[in-house]
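User: Structure please.
Assistant: Input sequence and predicted structure:
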Amino acid sequence: MANWSMLKAINTSMLKLKQIYQPSVFWLTAFGLGFLRPAPGTWGSLGAVVFWWFFLAELTLFAQLGIIVAYFLFSWWLCNRLINRLGVQDEPQIVADEVAGMWLALIFAPQIWWVALLAFALFRFFDIAKPGVVGWLDTNVHSGLGVMLDDLVAGLLSAGIVWLVLHF
């Protein structure tokens, strides 16, 4: 039954690949990664790791945090606009939330492959399983903030574990 409902959700999605030329769709799908199947959230997270590795990893903690906050706020604003314009909620193609959460998961990580892999695995676990507060946020907070916030908290939990692993 779960497979049918997932297939139905994919087929009835309001976002279509032909909309990628709209700047808000292009941004919120992480330049189209959200249209990749299966598991668009995983593709978005992987794209975030690659971008972090080449462009963010060597920046200071505060510079990375500033970029994450700016990205989060801009994506939240765009998400609200898209939700209001199309009447959608948390479409699977929207992966800007995974990008922001993944970057936060990597905030304490040195540019070492196994640490990046650990942050990726932890973030995907929290994003998919949605334990505790992550699940509560996913269920109870709506609009663009709801789309973005649960992944940010998943990233924060992942970052905390990465920090603990690196310091103990």
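The chain has one domain: 2-167.
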